[in-house]
Backbone:
C-alpha cells in the first residue's frame, strides 16, 4: 500500500460531475471550497494485499451476522438502544425471515496501513454513502490514467446481481420506489439513490422515484401512497431505520410492515434487521464473541475499562454518522463514561498517516460478498464531513 502524488486531469471536476459525482467540492468552515474528489494523489496496492483484504472483509461480515443472531437469540436488543417492544419485534421477525429479506449492500471502515492485519473501525450497514465515487468515477479514472491496470471494484456488476436476487422477493405488479430525503442539500443522498436505481433498472426491475417527504398516508386504505395516491408496496430508502421507527409516521410503518411474510403492505429495503448491524454496539458484541481476533479492536459498552491506562480509547455514539459526536481520549485520560448519550468505547487506533494524511479504507460488501474499495483521507484522526475521497489502483 503506497500513496503517490499525480497531476490531476484537466477539467477533472466536470468529468466526475458527468459521471454522477455532483458534489466534487466541500465547503469548509472558513468558507473555502476544496476538493472532496481528490485526484492529486492515489493509492496503489498489490494483488496479494487486495486478496487478503477481501478475505478479511468477508470474514468480518460473517462474524457480524453471527453477532446479530446472538443479539436476537439472547434477547439483547436493549444493548442497541432498541427498547420499544414493537420495534424489537419488527427487528426480530425480520431477522428470522432474513432469507426472504436479503441485504443489498454495506461498507466496512477499516484501519490498514499495508503492514499488519486490517482492523474493523465500524460497519456502515444501513445507509452507507460514498458509493457513487467508489463504483463509477474512480473506475473511469483508472481506465484513463492507468489503462490495463486493475482496481478492487466489482460494485456495479454485483449490485445488478443483488437486485436480480431481490426481484423474486418483491411484491408482483408494483414498482420498487427509490427514496431519499429532500433535506439533503449536497446531493450525495440523491445521487446514491439515483445510482442504485440505475443498477436496479439494469437488473430489469420496474422502478420509480420519490422523496421521503413526499410519501403520504392514506387513512382510508391504511396504506402508504406516492404523490399520485398509488400504493407503495416496496421502497428502497436511504433513510435510517432509527428515524423511520421514531418519526411521526412510525406507527404506520410498524402497523403495515411487510417482513417477508406477505401480510403487510410495504416492504422496506434495507430490511429492519439491518438495525442490528448499523449500531456501534455491534463492535462491543463482536469483541465479546471473538476476543483477541486479529481484525477487531477491543470495545465495550460500560466504559473504556483498562483502555484508559493502556492504549487510550474512542467514544462513539451508538448511532453516530460521519464522525459526529466521536471523542478521542489518549492514554492516561480519566476513564469517564459519557452521560449525554449511550456510546461504544473502542480502543484508540490512530489512523495511519501517509504524507500527513490520515486514511481509512471503506470496503464494500454487496449481498454477502466483498465488492470494492473507497479510500478517504482526513486532516485529523476523525474521518468527518470534510474528508477527501482518493482513487486507488492495483499495480
Residues:
Amino acid at each position: 500500500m503506497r500513496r503517490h502524488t499525480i497531476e490531476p486531469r484537466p477539467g477533472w471536476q466536470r468529468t466526475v460531475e458527468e459521471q454522477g459525482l455532483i458534489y466534487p467540492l466541500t465547503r469548509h468552515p472558513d468558507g473555502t471550497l476544496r476538493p472532496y474528489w481528490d485526484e492529486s494523489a492515489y493509492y496503489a496496492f498489490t494483488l496479494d494485499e487486495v486478496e487478503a483484504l477481501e478475505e478479511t472483509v468477508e470474514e468480518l461480515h460473517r462474524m457480524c451476522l453471527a453477532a446479530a443472531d446472538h443479539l436476537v437469540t439472547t434477547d439483547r436488543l436493549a444493548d442497541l438502544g432498541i427498547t420499544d417492544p414493537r420495534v424489537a419485534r419488527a427487528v426480530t421477525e425480520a431477522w428470522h425471515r432474513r432469507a426472504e429479506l436479503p441485504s443489498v449492500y454495506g461498507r466496512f471502515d477499516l484501519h490498514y496501513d499495508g503492514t499488519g492485519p486490517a482492523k474493523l473501525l465500524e460497519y456502515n450497514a444501513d445507509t452507507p454513502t460514498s458509493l457513487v465515487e467508489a463504483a463509477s468515477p474512480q473506475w473511469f479514472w483508472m481506465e484513463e490514467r492507468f489503462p490495463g491496470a486493475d482496481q478492487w471494484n466489482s460494485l456495479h456488476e454485483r449490485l445488478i446481481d443483488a437486485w436480480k436476487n431481490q426481484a423474486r422477493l418483491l411484491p408482483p405488479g408494483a414498482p420498487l420506489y427509490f427514496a431519499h430525503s429532500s433535506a439533503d442539500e449536497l446531493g450525495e443522498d440523491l445521487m446514491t439513490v439515483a445510482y442504485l436505481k440505475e443498477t436496479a433498472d439494469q437488473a430489469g426491475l420496474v422502478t420509480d422515484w420519490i422523496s421521503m417527504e413526499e410519501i403520504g398516508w392514506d387513512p382510508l386504505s391504511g396504506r402508504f401512497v406516492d404523490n399520485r395516491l398509488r400504493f407503495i408496496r416496496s421502497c428502497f430508502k436511504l433513510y435510517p431505520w432509527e428515524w423511520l421507527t421514531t418519526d411521526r409516521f412510525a406507527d404506520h410503518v410498524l402497523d403495515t410492515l411487510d417482513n417477508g411474510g406477505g401480510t403487510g403492505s410495504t416492504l422496506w429495503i434495507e430490511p429492519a434487521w439491518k438495525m442490528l448491524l448499523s449500531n456501534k454496539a455491534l463492535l462491543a458484541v463482536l469483541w465479546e464473541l471473538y476476543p483477541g481476533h486479529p481484525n477487531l479492536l477491543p470495545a465495550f459498552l460500560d466504559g473504556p475499562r483498562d483502555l484508559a491506562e493502556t492504549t487510550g480509547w474512542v467514544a462513539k455514539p451508538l448511532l453516530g454518522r460521519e464522525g459526529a459526536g466521536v471523542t478521542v481520549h489518549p492514554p492516561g485520560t480519566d476513564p469517564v463514561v459519557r452521560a449525554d448519550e449511550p456510546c461504544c468505547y473502542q480502543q484508540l487506533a490512530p489512523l495511519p498517516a501517509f504524507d500527513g494524511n490520515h486514511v481509512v479504507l471503506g470496503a464494500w460488501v454487496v449481498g454477502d460478498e466483498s465488492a470494492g474499495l473507497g479510500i478517504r483521507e482526513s486532516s485529523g484522526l476523525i474521518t468527518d464531513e470534510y474528508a477527501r475521497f482518493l482513487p486507488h489502483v492495483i499495480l
Summary: The two ends are 10 Å apart (CA to CA). The CA atoms of residues 42 and 391 lie 5 Å apart. The mean pLDDT is 94.
